[in-house]
Design goal:
alpha+beta, 5-stranded antiparallel sheet, 38% strand
Length: 428
């Protein structure tokens, strides 16, 4: 009998203690410091342990930004009749990157490189370049200089006097043209621009364009975009930008491979995202021949369509997103301009007119990427598109989806973020 009474008394005491402890915690979370500030805060930290532990586990399990969630209802499409070779890069391990030349028609891998990642987990190998002799040229975007590896992965050279960012392409002589930042005092300095407005000094990120010898990596041409603008009396273009600290944002340098009535072999078409402008630039004379702007916004990836036409990926979206208005009332009668999707825009250098490629395909499939994005008109008339932010790869033809897929990853429910897929037309 005494044992039963003792057990009952202990149970009552435990319940009383738990009830009192719960009431005390509830009071503390409501802001009451019943035990003094120090003791109350310590007690609150103690009971928050499991929340902190759960948050820590979630943080450990969080994937780097190089992976994208795959929609549960995603269905790939592959109606490719021809081989389609694509140079892709992705994070196959946390401390390693992989670059592959794939045939998207059958997902076969023709050649590959495993590259150690000494950078942060989210740093990417973006827009790697494959030379005709199967040499791979790459960088970790905006972080390192350029490296060259042979087909077996052996390092051939490393150019560390510049930092490569965004795109690089070959000219007709086989030289590499790259978007870059300039080295200064053995360090990579990106804030090298300055202008004054209303007695205010505005320092900004400047970009450069560089030419490299593909055999040695030696820099044979290097010029600041700000310097080019100043030399051509076009410094005022920088005021067009909505980004004060990154007003130019060079993302592509596309060399002309031949001479036509509208450009010379060796001319460059420079894409400046944050002023929504493409410059037709001649390095041999340091001349800007044309400033191309108009019905496009935050564009990428300039290419040649024919002897008098260029085309480019028009993101068609502002990268600086506004906040919801709070200082003025928001009207009930809204003038709705609809939904804006990305598109591919062509510009005729002869007539100075713009037109769209596969515009209905972009609208019908709701193709949009706020940043980055690539397009390539293929020899058979199909159009390849990298919808970068979502990680979708497309091939379109006259409104029909010929190909739609992602790069599947080692993590279930996620695919790889694409890093400027390069279509290889002349691989044997």
């Amino acid at each position: 009998m005494n044992k039963v009474l003792t057990t009952l008394a202990n149970t009552v005491l435990v319940l009383f203690f738990l009830s009192s402890f719960g009431w005390l915690i509830k009071s503390i979370t409501q802001g009451e410091k019943l035990l003094g500030e120090t003791t109350s805060d310590a007690l609150l930290s103690f009971v928050s342990f499991f929340d902190l532990f759960e948050e820590t586990v979630e943080e450990v399990q969080k994937l780097p930004e190089t992976f994208v969630p795959t929609p549960t209802d995603f269905k790939p499409v592959n109606k490719l009749d021809d081989d389609l070779f694509a140079l892709v890069s992705y994070s196959n391990k946390r401390k390693q990157r992989r670059v592959e030349l794939r045939n998207l028609k059958n997902d076969s891998i023709l050649i590959s490189w495993n590259i150690k990642n000494k950078q942060q987990e989210h740093d990417r190998i973006m827009d790697p370049l494959l030379l005709p002799n199967k040499t791979l040229v790459y960088s970790f975007n905006g972080v390192t200089g350029l490296f060259a590896l042979d087909s077996t992965g052996e390092k051939l050279w490393h150019q560390d006097t510049i930092v490569h960012h965004h795109a690089m392409n070959l000219d007709s002589a086989g030289n590499i043209w790259a978007c870059s930042y300039t080295e200064e005092d053995h360090w990579y300095i990106i804030y090298q621009g300055l202008y004054r407005s209303d007695e205010t000094e505005i320092r900004y990120i400047d970009n450069s364009v560089s030419r490299l010898d593909p055999n040695t990596g030696e820099v044979t041409f290097h010029k600041s975009i700000s310097e080019i603008l100043r030399d051509n009396n076009l410094s005022n273009l920088i005021i067009k930008s909505a980004s004060l600290d990154d007003p130019l944002h060079l993302n592509d340098v596309q060399p002309a491979l031949k001479t036509t009535a509208y450009y010379k072999e060796g001319d460059l078409f420079l894409s400046l995202r944050n002023i929504s402008t493409i410059l037709h630039y001649r390095p041999s004379s340091n001349e800007i021949l044309e400033v191309i702007d108009g019905l496009f916004y935050c564009q990428h990836d300039v290419d040649f369509l024919d002897d008098h036409t260029i085309y480019f990926f028009n993101n068609n979206g502002h990268t600086i997103r506004p906040k919801t208005p709070t200082n003025w009332p928001v009207g009930n009668k809204i003038q709705d301009l609809g939904i804006f999707y990305s598109n591919i825009m062509a510009y005729d250098l002869a007539t100075k007119e713009f037109y769209y490629l596969e515009d209905s395909s972009f609208t019908n499939n709701e193709i949009f990427t706020l940043t980055e994005g690539m397009s390539e008109v293929l020899e058979n008339g199909n159009v390849f598109v990298e919808e970068q932010n979502s990680g979708l790869l497309w091939v379109l033809k006259e409104g029909e989806v010929i190909y739609k897929n992602v790069l599947p990853s080692q993590y279930e429910g996620h695919h790889h973020l694409p890093n400027w897929t390069r279509i290889i037309k002349d691989f044997y």
